[in-house]
Each structure stands twice: as structure tokens, then as C-alpha cells.
Here is the input.
Amino acid sequence: SFKLTQPPSVSLSPGQTASISCSGDKLGDKYVCWYQQKPGQSPVLVIFQDDQRPSGIPDRFSGSNSGNTATLTISGTRAMDEADYYCQAWDGSTVVFGGGTKLTVL
Amino acid sequence: EVQLVESGGGLVQPGGSLGLSCIVSGVGFSNYWMSWVRQAPGKGLEWVASIKEDGSEKYYVDSLKGRFTISRDNGNNSLHLQVNSLRAEDTAMYYCARLVGYVAFDMWGQGTMVTVSS
Here is the structure.
């Protein structure tokens, strides 16, 4: 079955650029979404169709997808960006989520 | 403004059943695929099932086929999930989510908690 793999955690200082990877077989042939989830809250869509931002999502969030890896990039990371981030793709008949990456802003 | 509000969760014994519901306010419910996504305590997101706008197509994660049934009532703007033969590993927050475009969940409810324990 199709699987998406994310690093368990990423840590950085405020103002730095965060890159969170999501890998899967021929992932570049599929559309990837990214969700942000803060403790006790429901997930929020931050990127869809690889690199599109929903209304209201700051432009410091960007996405890319090529080959076997999709990447969520957060430029100028802020303390408020500290959260769990999940990638997600559609495998033809099933929806697959990555295991999630905990972003810590030190 | 679109809002999704889940209900029906609770404490249930192993082997028991529950009916989860999600009421969607705002226009356009019948124009969207809808889904259930769950999250076990301290764990990641797991897609459960999705249903087409008119209910004619349904998809389930393989591991839950046969125990979970997704349905919808467009007249009442509601989404449902019947969960049977519950196991401890089904303990999770169950979210209702709207599916758009190339499979993205753009709206989520606050979730309803299902706890399976004796």
C-alpha cells in the first residue's frame, strides 16, 4: 500500500526557514496537501495541489513536489508556527496521510 | 460561513456500536464530497472514509471495511458514520471534513471522541 514518510521532528529558531519533507513512491505524480495542527485543535489546510495556498494562509508557507518528495517550506518561521504538520495525497481510491512532523520553534 | 459540527461520540464497550453524525451549516453541502478522518490519542491523522456528493460512491480505508459505514442525508445537510464491532484501537477523535478539488480537506469539524473500553 502507498505510504508517505515524514521526519518525526524539526527544530529551528525564529526567523529561520523550515523545510519539512514528505516522501513516497512517485509522489511527484500525485497532488500533495499539507495540514497544520496545533494542540487541542482541528487540522487546518495550509497547502493544496502541491503549492497552492488557501485564502488566509500567510505567504511564508509554500510547497513543492517533484520526484519522490514533497516539501513544505515555512519562511521566517514564527513561534505561532509551532505545530504538527501532516502531508496527504490521494492514491486513486484511498487517502493517505504522512505520519506527521512536529515543528518546534526554539 | 460553513461550519461542521460532529456528535455521537462517547464511551462504548468492546464489540459495541455507535452512530456518529456531522451537521454542516452554510450553503452547498450537497455539492461536496465529505469524509471522516480519525486521530488516536497522541497519534497522527488516519483517513476513514469518503462519500460522493450524491452518496453513489463510497470509499473506505481497507482496514475498516465491513465495520464502518459512511452515509449522508443531503436534505438535512448531515453526514453519518456507523461504527460497529468496536475495538480498543478504534479509540480516537473522529473528524468530519469537507473534500475539495484534487482531494484536499478544506473544512474540518471540532471532532467527536470515541473511547472503546470495558
The longest strand of chain B covers residues 92-100. The interface with chain A takes residues 35, 37, 44-47, 50, 59, 61-62, 95, 100-106, 108-111 of chain B (CB under 8 Å).
